[in-house]
């Protein structure tokens, strides 16, 4: 874990600086992490589909979903495997509620030049940019 400085985009168009906590993943960890995350998603879909055993009409929807999920597991795994660096939070000021908050990653934790983050106080999303 390490902290790096990032720019947080404000709704006025200005930037303020914030501190982002990032984590670098060695290949071995990345692989087991990708396995776990893929398994969790695929497992959840499979578990939910068990309802089809009792409500047979739903099988019309469930079977294609299972099929697609099974196919999607490979690209999903590759995506997680490609996340060499992820971020967990960004400390900085929120331009909507004007509080110093710890932003959370929004939908994606992959570290890049532009990341979407969400304020836990007001739920607004904004962008964080790396300064490099
Ligand atoms: Zn806010």
Taking strands numbered 1, 2, ... along the chain, how are they ordered across the largest sheet? 1-2-3-4-5-6
**Low-confidence region ranges:** none
Return Rg in Å.
Answer: 19 Å
Associated small molecules: zinc ion
Total discrete domains: 2
* Straight-line distance between termini: 18 Å
Shape: elongated
Q: Spell out the helices and strands N to C.
A: EEHHEEEE
What's the total helix number? Answer: 2
What is the typical, i.e. mean, pLDDT? 93
Describe this structure in words.
This protein is α+β, with helices and mostly antiparallel strands. It has 2 domains: 2-25 and 83-130; 34-81. Helices cover 35% and strands 33% of the residues. It contains 2 helices and 6 strands. It has helices spanning 27-49, 59-81; strands at 2-9, 15-24, 85-93, 100-105, 114-118, 125-130. It has a 6-stranded antiparallel barrel. Strand 1 (2-9) and strand 2 (15-24) form a beta hairpin. Helix 1 packs antiparallel against helix 2 (59-81). The longest helix has 23 residues, at 27-49. The model has no long low-confidence stretch (mean pLDDT 93). Bound molecules: zinc ion (ZN). Zinc ion binds at residues 94, 96-97, 101, 119, 121-122, 124.
């Amino acid at each position: 874990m390490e902290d790096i400085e990032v720019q947080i985009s404000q709704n006025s168009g200005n930037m303020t600086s914030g501190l982002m906590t990032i984590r670098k993943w060695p290949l071995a960890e990345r692989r087991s992490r990708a396995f776990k995350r893929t398994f969790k998603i695929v497992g959840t879909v499979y578990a939910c589909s068990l309802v089809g055993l009792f409500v047979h009409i739903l099988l019309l929807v469930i079977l294609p979903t299972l099929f697609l999920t099974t196919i999607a597991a490979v690209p999903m795994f590759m995506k997680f495997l490609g996340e060499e660096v992820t971020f967990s939070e960004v400390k900085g000021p929120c331009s909507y509620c004007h509080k110093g908050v710890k932003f959370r990653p929004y939908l994606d934790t992959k570290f890049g030049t532009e990341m979407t983050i969400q304020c836990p106080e007001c739920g607004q999303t904004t962008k964080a940019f790396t300064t490099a």
